[in-house]
Amino acid sequence: MTDERIEGGRLRDAAFAAMENAYAPYSRFRVGAAVLASSGEIVTGCNVENAAYGEALCAERVAVAAAVAQGLTSFEEIAIASESEEPSPPCGSCRQTMSEFAPDLLVSSYARNGKQATWRLSELLPEAFDVNHLRGRL
Description:
The chain is α+β, with helices and mostly antiparallel strands and 138 residues long. The chain is built from five helices and five strands; from the N terminus they run H-H-E-E-H-E-H-E-E-H. A hairpin with a 4-residue loop joins strand 1 (31-37) and strand 2.
C-alpha cells in the first residue's frame, strides 16, 4: 500500500479537505480524517463537537463509522489532518475503534505546517481489548 499512500497524497489531501468541514466551536481544534479501505475506496470524517463535551465525535471515529455504514470493514491506512503545530496521534477511543477493524493499521498524521508522523496502530495501542477477551461470553 506504500505506493498508493505516496501517490499524489490523495489520503492526506482528503483528510485536509474533511478538516475544512469540522464543527469545532468550543475547542477550535479542527480535525479531518480519511480512511483507505482495502477496496481502494477513501472515506472521510471530521470532528463534530457538542455543547455537552462528552458527546463530541472525533474525526477518526466518524470516518470509520461512515466506512462501516458503506459496508467497508477492512482498512489499510488512515490519514489524520489538523491545524496543530505537531502531528496529532489519535485519542484512545479512536485507537480502540480502529483496532476493531485493523489492529495493525498504518496511521499517518499531518500538521498544516507540513510536519508529519507515521505509526502502526499496534504501536499506539499494544494491548488492545479485542474479541479474544470476550471468549466464553459470545
